[in-house]
């Protein structure tokens, strides 16, 4: 027995989908997200815990109390995460800070324990994951706790969480495909009634507009009724179309028959006067036929153009003037008084979304109706006036008008209310179709002149608003911009890059301010409320990393074709753009090329064996005053114990220290120095080209390479322009300018090698060790670590 209410499609689909997707999409997704988060946290927490243990092992009791020698390995462990910023703090709970950032947040009531404790807190505008771990240290005052707190931002671990989750979702997608198979079967089964309706409609003839019969399920009963409602509407529409065609055929046939009758009577007339009378009647009938034909065509045209997609911004005032000019050229308008009043509407305030052809036809019909139904010397007044977001186009005449009772029928097709003029009955229906197509309102009333008043009310576009919206764009396009660059690079060395950028960016001027590396670092830390520069450039990579690690830099999206080496970029915020090897520059008159040492160990032996010969004639950086010198010295110390041995040997030879490469090279050129150790290669090579007796030397064991780095500070006034400048430095064109027009070396050395230093680099390319942009550079910026290193350096030099 069939169910009169019909089966439920919704219930069938829900049952099919529930079995396939409920557990998969809800439980598995939730569990997968939780698993991915825990897995990412465990992975990165191991780095934090390992770094904390490495630091705790270097905590000791000294003459001045508890101290720590921050191990390089701790920062290198954290550098295994190449994205996140790092903060650390070493302290004695409740007593004093030993080193690091003393304002790191700690949960209330947290006490250091030997077991690491992990937590997340906001710090300086970013979310950090912290580890807090302690160690008991025995001292003169008994045992006391020393705590280490290390934190990293969570960008990498959240990205890894998403990666784990996406991998799990791939498996879930396979299961989902199986579920979709079940859904497909359910839909095929449940929607069979719709296929039956489709088959019924497909078999019908185009003329068959019978309603679809059947008892559909209640879920599609609304669709079923809508189809039958559409069929009924289509049937009514076809009926109206057939009626309209019949009316057109009847009107045209009647008019042509009357015309033929008059002509036939004129042919049969026996005298001239009767013939002339019949011909005049035939002429008037022909005119009515022409008018009827024109009206029918105009009506069809207006209906065809009623689509809103064809509407465009149209100014009414010039359109009305054009129609009036055309009308005045008609001989029938010689005695008609035409007037137009539109001064109250300013230029730009008469713009509507409209179709000018349709509006012209409506206005032309209103004028012709006024002339046809009025006396020979009738008056027609056209007024254009605005009110708020509306604009009114009013046409008034001095004709007989339309009785108030007949106004509702006046816009019907083939309805003529005047037997005297007996028009086609399409004029006002065309005006009504134009109004409907524009979403406008048509009102008919008695005019002040005694005849008919027809008013079209349109919604207008305020051109002034459009103009106001465009003004900021125009003003912005014409405004000149200044890019402020603070840099620790000599201005002459970087000037070709700046000039090339200005030439390729019209309207932009670069304001270049030169600093020493340490001064630039201090200036960025002491900005206060002052606006930062747009770009910061420095060769002191460790100081630059420190600024970025403090959260002072913004992320830069480089074009996809620009891919710097991994060692020359960090967090997509700081980028190296030059290749700057440390070089030994020597006076050929004091040192022969044959006796040059092959390695750093050989250099120490070479100086020790010639101590009296080179006493006071060896130069290097004063690392207490030079950021680059300190960077080179600390990185040398990481290469092996020979660095400290070399410092001691240089100290016994009374090594001289300088602030910068240019002074060291100049002293060597004057013969004051025999050689210089750890000079910046590009600067030294540029100066040595002018002094033939100066030579460059690289070692076989290793040669440190630093890179001039650039970043865009947060709060920069022109961040987009600054991004473009950094991208230009790294672009193929920018690197070509670096290599060909500046004393600097491009980031990736590539043939052909035109300068001597480039040829020397290519001879032993594998011996160059780039300094990597990573948190590991922060190790020797720790206050205690820096003090201990400088003290050891001073001691080695015998100062």
From TrEMBL:
Instruction: Please give the catalytic activity noted in the UniProt record.
Output: ATP + protein L-histidine = ADP + protein N-phospho-L-histidine
The source's domain of life comes to Bacteria
Q: Which PROSITE patterns match?
A: HAMP, HIS_KIN
Q: Where is the HAMP domain?
A: 188-239
Enzyme class comes to transferase
UniProt KW keywords: Kinase, Membrane, Phosphoprotein, Transferase, Transmembrane, Transmembrane helix, Two-component regulatory system
Q: What is its EC number?
A: 2.7.13.3
PANTHER family membership = SENSOR HISTIDINE KINASE YKOH (PTHR45436), SENSOR PROTEIN QSEC (PTHR45436:SF1)
Q: What is this protein called?
A: histidine kinase
Please name the source species. Answer: Albimonas pacifica
């Amino acid at each position: 027995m069939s169910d009169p209410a019909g089966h439920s499609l919704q219930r069938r689909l829900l049952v099919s989908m529930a079995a396939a997707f409920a557990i998969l999409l809800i439980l598995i997704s939730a569990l997968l997200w939780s698993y991915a988060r825990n897995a990412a946290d465990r992975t990165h927490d191991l780095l934090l815990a390992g770094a904390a243990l490495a630091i705790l092992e270097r905590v000791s009791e000294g003459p001045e109390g508890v101290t720590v020698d921050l191990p390089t390995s701790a920062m290198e462990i954290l550098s295994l995460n190449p994205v996140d910023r790092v903060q650390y703090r070493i302290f004695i709970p409740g007593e004093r800070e030993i080193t690091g950032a003393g304002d790191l947040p700690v949960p209330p009531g947290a006490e250091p324990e030997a077991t690491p404790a992990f937590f997340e807190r906001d710090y300086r505008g970013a979310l950090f994951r912290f580890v807090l771990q302690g160690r008991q240290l025995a001292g003169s005052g008994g045992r006391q706790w020393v705590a280490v707190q290390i934190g990293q931002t969570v960008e990498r671990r959240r990205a890894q969480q998403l990666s784990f989750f996406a991998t799990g979702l791939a498996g879930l997608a396979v299961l989902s495909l199986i579920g979709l198979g079940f859904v497909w079967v359910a839909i095929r089964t449940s929607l069979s009634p719709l296929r039956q309706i489709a088959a019924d409609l497909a078999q019908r003839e185009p003329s068959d507009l019978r309603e679809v019969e059947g008892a559909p399920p209640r879920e599609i009963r609304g669709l079923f009724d809508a189809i039958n409602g559409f069929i009924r509407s289509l049937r009514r529409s076809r009926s109206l179309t057939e009626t309209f065609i019949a009316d057109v055929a009847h009107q045209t046939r009647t008019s042509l028959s009357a015309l033929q009758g008059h002509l036939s009577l004129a042919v049969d007339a026996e005298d001239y006067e009767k013939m002339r009378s019949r011909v005049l009647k035939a002429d008037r009938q022909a005119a009515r036929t022409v008018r009827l034909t024109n009206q029918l065509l105009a009506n069809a045209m207006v209906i065809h153009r009623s689509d809103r997609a064809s509407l465009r911004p149209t100014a009414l005032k010039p359109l009305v003037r054009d129609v009036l000019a055309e009308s005045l050229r008609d001989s029938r308008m010689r005695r008609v008084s035409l007037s137009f009043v539109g001064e109250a509407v300013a230029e730009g305030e008469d713009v509507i979304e409209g179709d000018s052809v349709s509006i012209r036809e409506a206005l032309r019909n209103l004028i012709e109706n006024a002339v046809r139904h009025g006396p020979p010397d009738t008056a027609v007044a056209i007024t254009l006036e605005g009110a708020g977001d509306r604009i009114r186009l009013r046409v008034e005449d001095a004709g007989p008008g339309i009785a108030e009772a007949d106004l509702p029928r006046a816009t019907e097709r083939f309805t003529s209310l005047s037997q005297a003029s007996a028009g086609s009955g399409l004029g006002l229906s065309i005006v009504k179709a134009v109004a409907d197509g524009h979403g406008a309102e048509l009102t008919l009333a008695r005019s002040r002149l005694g005849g008919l008043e027809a008013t079209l009310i349109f919604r207008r576009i305020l051109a002034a608003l459009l103009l106001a919206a465009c003004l900021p764009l125009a003003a912005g396009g014409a405004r000149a911009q200044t890019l402020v660059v603070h840099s620790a690079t000599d201005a002459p060395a970087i000037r070709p890059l700046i000039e090339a950028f200005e030439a390729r960016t019209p309207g932009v001027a670069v304001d270049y301010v030169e600093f020493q590396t340490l001064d630039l670092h201090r200036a960025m830390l002491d900005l206060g409320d002052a606006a930062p520069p747009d770009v910061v450039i420095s060769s002191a990579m460790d100081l630059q990393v420190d600024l970025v690690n403090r959260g002072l830099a913004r992320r830069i999206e480089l074009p996809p074709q620009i891919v710097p080496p991994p060692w020359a970029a960090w967090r997509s915020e700081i980028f190296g753009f030059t290749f700057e090897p440390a070089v030994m520059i020597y006076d050929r008159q004091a040192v022969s090329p044959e006796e040059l040492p092959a390695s750093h160990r050989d250099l120490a032996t070479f100086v020790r064996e010639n101590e009296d010969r080179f006493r006071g004639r060896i130069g290097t950086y004063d690392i207490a005053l030079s950021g680059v010198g300190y960077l080179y010295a600390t990185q040398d110390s990481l290469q092996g114990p020979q660095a400290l041995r070399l410092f001691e040997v240089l100290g016994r030879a009374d090594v001289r220290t300088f602030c910068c490469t240019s002074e060291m090279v100049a002293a060597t050129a004057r013969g004051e120095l025999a050689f210089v150790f750890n000079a910046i290669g590009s600067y030294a090579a540029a100066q040595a080209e002018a002094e033939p007796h100066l030579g460059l030397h690289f070692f076989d064991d290793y040669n440190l390479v630093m890179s001039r780095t650039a970043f865009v500070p947060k709060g920069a006034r022109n961040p987009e322009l600054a991004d473009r400048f950094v991208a230009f430095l790294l672009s193929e064109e920018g690197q070509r300018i670096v290599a060909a027009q500046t004393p600097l070396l491009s980031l990736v050395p590539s043939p052909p090698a035109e300068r001597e230093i480039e040829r020397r680099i290519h001879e032993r390319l594998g011996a160059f060790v780039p300094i990597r942009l990573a948190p590991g550079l922060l190790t020797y910026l720790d206050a205690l670590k820096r003090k201990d290193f400088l003290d050891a350096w001073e001691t080695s030099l015998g100062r």
